Amino acid sequence: MKEFAVFWGCTIQTRFPFLEKSTRIVLDEFKLPYRDIDGFTCCPEKSLVNNIDHSLFVATAARNVALADELDCDIVSPCTGCVSNLATVKSELNYNPVDRAQVNSLLKGIGREFKGTAKLAHLVPFFHDAVGVQRIRQKIKKDFAGMKLAIHYGCHMIRPSHALKNDDPLNPKKFDNLIRALGAESPDFPAKMMCCGQGLDRVDQHDYALQMARLKLKELKAIGADALLLCCPSCFLQFDNNQFLMEKEGEKLGVPVIYFTELMGLAMGYSPEELGMNSHRVDCSGFMKKWDGLKAKPVDTQSLEDELNKAGALG
Amino acid sequence: MLDAQLNMKLLEMCSGCGACYSICPSSLNLPGYDPRAVIKDILKGDMDKWLASKSIWQCLECHYCLEMCFQHYGFENAMTALRTIAAKRGLHPPQVKRGWDMFVKTSRLGEPALPARKKFGLPDPPKSGAEEFKKLHALLKEAKEKDARKAHNE
């Protein structure tokens, strides 16, 4: 496997260092060839930067990709926004020689060059494609059979598809496959593919952000999901932090929000404390209690193996 | 150089389609959010009334419309162009202004949380690229001014 730089992004490093912790634990467990790179800046965040100055959006992202190009490594990120923004610019420059020449004449002034050779991937499709469901199955000590884990993809894990090219942008499968590999049920629900709505918080429309969070969380209550599973710090902020704010106002929805790396870590035998899950705002103890109860029971793994191995099962 | 622009030809087609409205999370859930009305006004040359509205900031940039769009244009591109014009006139929300200021000053939207890193046993964060970024930003500004002077002289 080719070496890759982890693009942590601003939100994880500033607000959720425990998500970096669980990501590193999982990358180490699978002995994946990852590294840190000096000099990454904000990807940059689309709604704040692209809306004001598209050229700075492009130049900044191009510089970040150039840092990986130079070291001949790829980029993997546990943040959907970072990957999507970097990939959008990479694609724009790879298909527009004139823009690319303009950007490179700027980058030359700081001794860099955008080549666009570094491959960009989000952690979830990366685990699906480069690590693989079978290798994950071999690693887990205890799976989540008997748990109903509702997936929130996060728009930018899969869109825009012309830039990311990693899954079906309207009906994605890879996150679902991974959750099935961990033994859990991934239920369908009407708002499954709906945007989290966190963007509204960034433009001073907090009440609408809450309205969007509420919509999905209420559906999850209704279908009896044990947790909401995601892999994007912005979506995490929306569902964990904003749900907590609603709780404080007396509206308790009680849906634990679990990061993909935390779920993997739990399955490999790490404790919630080791994974930093006690830093969540919404209590995860109900989720842990149910899972601990299920751990005692022997699980039928053969039918799960059969299900995952049959033709077209992961398609 | 590399500016967000409205493509009137594509928007003309856009106004007769509507494939994206039934899937747009803001259209479905936020009262008064109506891309069709905005497109109509843009085509009439009457977009100014939208520039100070909350509406144009309610596009979540989820890219759903882009995926649904037969022209691969997507209503979001029209919204981005309107927001860019609004920002040039200083009409963008305070939080966007603050985010932008922090970004151009520090190259990121926040600094790594050092005490928490220590608590979790995380390694020292990689070095910041702020100095190089500021140089790049200055070069970009220079190039834009040069472009503007050239356009003015022509």
In short, what is this structure?
The complex is a heterodimer of chains A (315) and B (154). Chain A is an alpha/beta fold.
Q: What does this 3D model show about the protein?
A:
The complex is a heterodimer of chains A (315) and B (154). Chain A has 2 domains: 4-122, Glutathione S-transferase Yfyf (Class Pi), Chain A, domain 2; 142-309, Rossmann fold (3-Layer(aba) Sandwich), CATH 3.40.50.11810. Chain A has 315 residues and is of the alpha/beta class. In chain A, 52% of the residues lie in helices and 7% in strands. In chain A, α2 crosses α14 (260-267) and α7 (123-131) packs across α8. Chain A has helices spanning 9-15, 17-29, 46-50, 54-70, 80-95, 97-108, 123-131, 133-139, 155-158, 161-164, 174-181, 206-223, 233-248, 260-267, 285-295, 301-309, and strands at 4-6, 34-35, 74-77, 120-122, 149-151, 227-230, 257-259. In chain A, strands 2-1-3-4 form a 4-stranded parallel β-sheet. Chain A has a 3-stranded parallel β-sheet with strand order 5-6-7, sandwiched between helices. Chain A is globular. Chain B is mostly helical and 154 residues long. Chain B has 2 domains: 8-88, no CATH class; 94-153, no CATH class. Chain B is 57% helix and 0% strand. Chain B has helices spanning 8-15, 25-29, 35-43, 48-51, 64-68, 75-88, 94-106, 114-119, 130-153. In chain B, α1 (8-15) packs across α3 (35-43). The mean pLDDT of chain B is 92.
